[in-house]
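Tutorial, part two.
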Amino acid sequence: MYQYIKFIMELKQIEKISKALSDVNRLKILQYMQKNQGKVECTKACNLLDLAQPSISHHIKKLVEAGLINQHKIGRNYNYSLNHEVWDNYMLRLQNL
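Running the prediction step on this input gives:
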């Protein structure tokens, strides 16, 4: 029973990550991060996409909630970095479905 519950929880996480990856703007943010040593500042993300700051914040929030990126507050600003552990686990789980 425990392994079944664990499996369902893992599937929910895979679903959450997959939904976060289903938006082109989020993919652009991730692509930019990958090209910049896995990091981005919120202000640079605003310059990257032709979207208002609240929209950028929404997309970044979805990526943080899915665990794909980590959020670091420095003063009044936030920096974001790729969460390589979650990426690796996600890719491994997809290969074993």
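The longest helix spans residues 2-20. In part three we will examine how such features are distributed along the chain.
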